[in-house]
Amino acid sequence: MAGTGDKYSDEKYAGEFREDFIRNLRIDFFDDEEISAVLRDLDSLDSRIRQKVFALCHTLSHASSSLVPNALKRIKTASGLLPGRDLERWITHAYDILDRQGIGAFADYISGIDDEALRRFSTPEGLPLREIMAVLETYIRGISGRELKIAAARETYTDTSAIFLPAFVNRYEDRDRNYLIYKYCAALAWAQISQGTVTTDEDVLNRFLKEVPAEPDISAFFRMFPDERMAIDIFSILEAVRLETFLEKELPGLMREVKAVKRDFLNDRPLCPEQARKSAFVEGLYRLYLDGEPAEEFQNLTGDIPGDILMLKKNAGVEESMKLLGIMYDLAAGLAGDYQPVIFDPLLCTIRPQEVSLVLKAGRRARRQRLEGMITKLLNMPDFEQQKITLRRAGQQKLPESGKEYLLIKGRLIELDSEMREILQERGMSGGIIVKGADMGGAGSPMTLTDLMEEDEVIEESAGGVKYDEWDYKRGGYKKKWCTLREKNVHPGHDPFVEQTRKRYSGYIRVLRKRFELLRREPRLLRRQKDGDDFDLDAVIDAYSDSHAGLAPSEDLFMKYDRQQRSIAVLFLLDMSGSTKGWINEAEKESLVLMAEALETLGDRYAIFGFSGMKRSNCDFYRIKGFEEPYDGKVKRRISGISPKDYTRMGPPIRHSVKILKAVEERTRLFITLSDGRPEDYDAYKGDYAIEDTRRALTEAREQGIHPFCITIDREAGSYLRHMYGEVNYIVIDDVKKLPNRITEIYRRLTT
Fold it and tell me: pLDDT band at 5, cuts 50/70/90?
């Protein structure tokens, strides 16, 4: 943005540019009293925006000083309506309009300071999903055992592979109750997946479908209804009622808390007497879900139906909801008027049949490909190859059933289903025979292809990744190949975090670039050399003193400038544990943006990785930017996507970082860790054990010519960092908000 940055630093503001500004006002016939009033208005502004506003007014004074008082008046009015950061965005946008569209457009824009015009610059109140996304993913993983991504959408729903939630929840002023809404919505979506709402069995679907497609799913079920949207809305409510019993059993504490939330949402809903009768019917059904009891009007309209709905709570299956939908749809369809879709609160997890169908079809295609791969493996196995891993516990082996057919192939007995039989017919039966369970005489333990696929996943998982030793200080030795580390890419974010950070720190980034540009050009001064550009005065004085003392003087009396090109590589390792959520995560990401902007100017080679994980077999190492990758849109989206994960097992990611740095051919190799606390994992990796393993990994790094350094915001870190990193190889930043500004200065000092 023109007119901001170091050009308008405090010194300039108080000096020559202020004088130039006053001179422009005088040229436009401002008297002393008017000038004093303008300056008072400027000085009264918050220091965070004062320089930016002065830059704006200074630019205006070159065009027409008469605009300055009015602009200041509008800015002061806006400052009473917008908080600091939002006000800064509004002023920045005003300056952009002045630069790009001229005085007229600027005057029109700045005059519009009513609530409506300013609303789009206000950060929405409430709890943003992005702040708790990682926590919710961990929560869902904990209650379900499944990896389900959380993503933002306009309403709550699931496509079976991800859970979509509103970007903001602002029903309450306090964060905890808004978070409670998110937790309930996520849990309800998980229940829809696990209890068959969106993953209905084919046998159940076939009992309702008039024409059965090759691969039936709920989208085929809803296509039977002329008004598909009304059927979906009714069914979403019926399933929410049915699933409450499951959630009360699995998550009783959550369900107790959410009762009050449902009452609040019920009280919020306006009564709409002019509502079409079909819509009023669905609204009454939704109110029954929120209240637990039917309203009198709904009871009169539906007779015994509310009782049937509440019976869904008696451990009913999805089939009962589907039957009841048919009855309720017919009842609603007989009412007058068209159905105008009801707007539901975030509490209701709606159903998106098309999205579900797409994901399920993709899953079936992937499964068939895996089945074909498994059959290929079976056909190519040597005879009677022993199983590497068994998934069944001793005593739980099942026997062949007399009425079933099995494939006997290379020493394994595989249950035949229609899908496998079809694939075998396409590929031929070479290497195996089909046998009946009655002919097996109780011998053997059959497996399904699902068993084989799960076994293959376990084998691949065990075989995959990189194995690292772990230091056990108690035994004074390493646990060999104890930890498994896997490299992953950070899931890219789609919010413009990098651009927002660059805009927020635009002035500071310009200063950084200038500093680092000078650093790139600046030769290093080497003292006490045998030859050089000039005498080293300190060395000469020492030599003279030694000579008079009868000692042999040193011949290293010169100093010279080393003009060699910089040869530095740095790897930044970012703590992505669950404890970094909120401000810490934001500050870490902002720090990476500023560091990347500076290093792009300096030309030093750099890489950025993150780490987290849970237990020794799941050490995750996240690629954000490799040494050979450019700082492009892909990397920026990864920075945007950085989010808190699990725990902080530091040994494996340090050892892996050292391995990466060793492959980089630079004279100086730095390894900088950004962390918010001590090393700790879900298992026994904590306390002295974790600290000593981390210390050992850092010692290994030094032995291989790599220089480790730690930047932490843990104020109690001195008790263990000194032991792990040494006296001068770490720094504690007492306020996380200072991290973005400090990290570049720390790097500059480390490399000069």
Answer: very low
What is each CA distance from 640 to 460, 608, 617, 636, in whole angstroms?
A: 31, 13, 27, 6
Residue 534 falls inside a structural domain: no
Q: Which of 204-208, 425-429, 709-713 has the highest mean pLDDT?
A: 204-208
Beta bridge partners of 479: 470
Q: Are strands 605-613 and 707-712 parallel, antiparallel or unpaired?
A: unpaired
User: What is the residue-wise DSSP string for 306-336?
Assistant: HHHHHGGGTT--HHHHHHHHHHHHHHHHTSS
Q: What gap in Å lies between CA 622 and CA 611, rounded to an integer?
A: 6
Run of H or E residues at 624: strand 619-625
Q: Which of 121, 139, 167 is the last residue of a domain?
A: 121
pLDDT digits (tens, 9 = 90+) for 603-620: 788 999 999 888 888 899
What residues contact 688, with CB distance under 8 A and at least 6 apart? 473
Looking up residue 736, the CATH number of its domain turns out to be 3.40.50.410
- Number of Cβ within a 10 Å radius of residue 360: 20
Is 493 part of any domain?
no
DSSP type of residue 293:
S
User: DSSP character for 648?
Assistant: B
For the whole model, what pTM was predicted?
0.47
CA dist 515 and 598 (Å) reads 9
305 and 346 part of one domain: yes
Residues 309 and 238: their CA atoms lie apart, in Å, by: 7
Question: Structural domain of residue 100, as residue ranges?
Answer: 2-121
Residue 55 sits at the vertex; the CA angle it makes with 54 and 61, to the nearest 5 degrees, is 85
Give CA–CA dist 193/351, Å, rounded.
11
pLDDT > 70? residue 292: yes
* CA–CA separation, 539 and 121 (whole Å): 62
More confident residue, 412 or 164: 164
Identity (one letter) of the amino acid at 27? I
Does one domain contain both 157 and 245?
yes
Instruction: Output the CA angle 346-150-647, nearest 5 degrees.
Output: 130
Half-sphere exposure of 560 (CA within 13 A, CB side): 11
Number of domains in the chain: 3
Cα distance between residue 516 and residue 44, in whole Å? 35
531 within domain boundaries: no
| Eight-class DSSP state of 347 | T
Give the pLDDT of residue 527: 72
691 pLDDT above the threshold of 60:
yes
What whole-number distance in Å separates Cα of residue 737 and Cα of residue 718? 20
Identify the pLDDT of residue 78. 81
Span 234-284, pLDDT tens digits: 999 999 999 999 999 888 889 999 999 999 999 888 776 667 888 888 988
608 within domain boundaries: yes
Helices (H) and strands (E) in the chain, counts: 30, 19
Token look-up 């699990």 returns 646
